[in-house]
Amino acid sequence: MFKRIMVPVDLSHVDRLDKALTCAADMAKLHGATVVYVAVSSATPSALAHNPEEFAAKLAEFAESQGAAQGITAEPHAVISHDPTIDLDPTLLKAVADTGADLVVMASHVPNVSDYIWPSNGGRIASHAKVTVMVVR
Amino acid sequence: MADTSGGQGIPEPDGPSGLIDTDYEIGQDNYEAQIGPIGLDIHNPVFAISAVAVIAFVFYALALPEQANAFFGWLRPALTSTFDWFFMGAANIFVLFCLALIVLPVGKVRLGGADAQPDYTYLGWFAMLFAAGMGIGLMFFGVLEPVYHMAISSPLGVPSPFAEDGTLIPENVDAARKMGLAATIYHWGLHPWAIYAVVALALALFSYNKGLPLTIRSAFYPIFGERVWGWVGHVIDIIAVFATLFGLATSLGFGAQQANAGLEHVFGIPVNTTVQVILITGITAVALVSVLRGLDGGVKVLSEINMGIAALLLIFVLFAAGAGVIFREFLEGLLGYVQDIVPLSNPFGRDDTGYMHGWTTFYWAWWISWSPFVGMFIARVSRGRTVREFVTCVLLIPSLVCILWMATFGGAAIEQVLADPANSLVKAQVIDSYDPPISLFAMLEGLPLSSITSVIAIVLVIVFFVTSSDSGSLVIDTITAGGKVDAPVPQRVFWCVFEGAVAIVLLIGGGLGALQAMVISTGLPFTVVLLMMCYAIWRGLQAERRL
User: Fold this and answer.
1) Which residues are bridge partners to A8 per DSSP?
2) Is B41 helix (H, G, I), strand (E, B) or coil?
3) What's the per-residue H, E or C state across B244-298?
């Protein structure tokens, strides 16, 4: 049913992604699908990486270890954004098309008041993506 | 040492790399919290001290207005006349340094590494750096300055074309009009852009090539080493935030007064605090929308709109005043600039101190105090350019555009003043009575369709403010988040609103002048900072070339 599953990951908060990662891996095994891990960063140095190349390498390493640990086929897809705070949602939506994903599995927090002012990323992706989106809480 | 555990630390680079190996992890001093619906990721203590210091200075200016006005009223001329040699000498060094970078082999170094691709097209890049860098000053001084220098300030002792009784002295005309433009171009040409280029290049180099956080202190790593992450660095970053915020807030306050004067001139809207507060609120609201739409969806789009409107107005004035006349003014002004740049840059043995202290050193201090903001913003959007390309586009092209702007607006105004002195509105507003905010509108009234162009000019004044305000908020946000460009949204909202609020408080309570003088006084320590940056850039580029 699903061939490519996109999983947006925040490499600096991997600990908060456990449920979504496991869920995506289970779905991938069920459908024999490939999991594409998507991460977004700016070109300026951050705590994760000095530059875009290093960031991509770090994501590739993450995808490889996930693939081995979960026994699935995994791919990395690193994206550089000029202003990640604001552009995260459109960047992820574009990544859905670029990766050819037919399912998005993403982690989200429990909704709170601020989601009325700034909708959560999961909420935004779910309402705008053309493919199935599964928001894991 | 670099972190090799695969955790959150900065990883060890592979192969040849110019990265600086530091213990510091970006964001390690940051305070992260979730307060109700608001997420925070702020540098401790830069964010808090900057915000508190700004509030403290606003209170000082409001609580003791006479003392503040007296002190800063003394400080500004004291600085610009006592340290004239220092400001002018340093600015000359920056120009020579930048020109050297264009021709020397180090110009080949690419910001972001040898394989980096430019983030923006030339047009988007140029629109952003120009809108942040000069902006409003072009509107304010485009007519005022050339006419003033031609008729009143007598740079290098070139006499005025007007006698005491206001009659024209024909034999003085040619030299004075040429000097009026050349002396203006001097303030808007190579020197200011070299100041910006130095700061921007230092930040871009140490961030994109050396892997240090995008914040002012990073450029000082070669000088202070690891100590730059401590109080030395905190102080540098705090002064930068301080200068940027007060620079923006005081400009916003004065700009609202200019826009109000324009509105009165064109529509008869009264000049009062209420109108000005509404203007500041409106400008801040648009800037807020812009920062919420982000760098690409807001700031860049507005900068491009801004450039479009400015180009329209420029082309209109160029043809309305006569393309031939403006072309001659452009060539004369450029020639005068080339001929006189050396004597104008010399701080010693000058008699024209009114021009040199009142204008030149004031401008240099002003551009330098503005440079942390503009430099950091230029750095943010310049990844992927080679040093040669960078300096050419930040130094030479904006200088040429400024020369064209001044030749067009100033040239058209000078033409009006000299063609019919008795009926010239520009002469009445600049030479006979000094009324700077009206000067641009007075010139436009001497051309056809002035009711339309005056409205466009007011819109342009306002949009120029928005483009400074939004990019300034992003810069302050990044510095106070310890170099993180992905800090939570409420922080950039805070700085944008804070800046508008400070402007309104100063406008109502008085104190714009005092705090602007204080901003200019930060130009002095920053001149030292910039000189050190030249050294740091040189060291950094040498290391890159050896890779």
Assistant:
1) A38
2) strand
3) HHHHHHHHHHHHHHHHHHHHHHHHCCCCCHHHHHHHHHHHHHHHHHHHHHHHHHH
Distance from CA of B356 to the nearest CA of A (A): 40
- Contacts of residue B509, defined as CB under 8 A and 6 or more positions apart, other chains included, come to B61, B62, B65
**Calpha distance B314→B406 (Å, rounded):** 10
Buried b / exposed e along B244-273 (16+ C-beta atoms within 10 A): bbbbbbbbbbbbbbbbbbbbbbbeeeeeee
- Between B9-18, B100-109, B267-276, the lowest mean confidence (pLDDT) is in B9-18
Q: Is the dihedral of CA B540, B544, B545, B547 positive or negative?
A: positive
CATH of the domain at A20: 3.40.50.620
- Closest in B14, B293, B383 to A86, CB measured: B293
**Number of domains observed in the structure of chain A:** 1
B149-205 pLDDT, tens per residue? 999 988 999 999 998 888 889 899 999 999 999 999 999 999 999 999 999 999 999
For every residue of B103-162, DSSP letters joined together read HSGGGGPBTT-TTPPPSS-HHHHHHHHHHHHTTHHHHHHTTHHHHHIIIII-GGGPPPSB
What are the chain B neighbours of A87 within 8 Å (beta carbons)? 294-297
CATH classification (class only), B30-98+114-545: mainly alpha
Domain extents for chain B? 30-98+114-545
User: What would the two tokens of residue A46 be?
Assistant: 């951050």
Tokens of B110: 């690419």
Task: Please check whether residue B439 is in contact with residue B430, taking contact to mean a CB–CB distance below 8 angstroms.
Answer: yes
Which residue from B13, B486, B487 is facing A50, i.e. has the nearest CB?
Answer: B13
Mean pLDDT of A84-99: 89
Query: SS3 sequence, B425-476?
Result: HHHHHHHHCCCHHHHHHHHHHCCCCHHHHHHHHHHHHHHHHHHHHHHHHHHH
Which percentage of chain B shows pLDDT scores above 70?
Answer: 95
Rg (C-alpha) for chain A, rounded Å, is 14
Q: Which amino acid is at B310?
A: A
Instruction: Tell me: pLDDT of B370 over 70.
Output: yes
pLDDT in tens, B87-106: 999 999 999 999 999 999 99
Q: What angle do CA B496, B310, B414 make, to 5 degrees?
A: 120
Whole-model pTM: value is 0.89
Domain residue limits at A48: 4-136
Q: Which residues of B214-228 are buried (b: 16+ CB within 10 A; e: fewer)?
A: bbbbbbbbbeeeeeb
What ipTM was estimated for this complex?
0.80
- Choose from A13, A15, A41, A46 for mutation: most chain B CBs within 10 A: A46
Strand, coil or helix: A136? strand
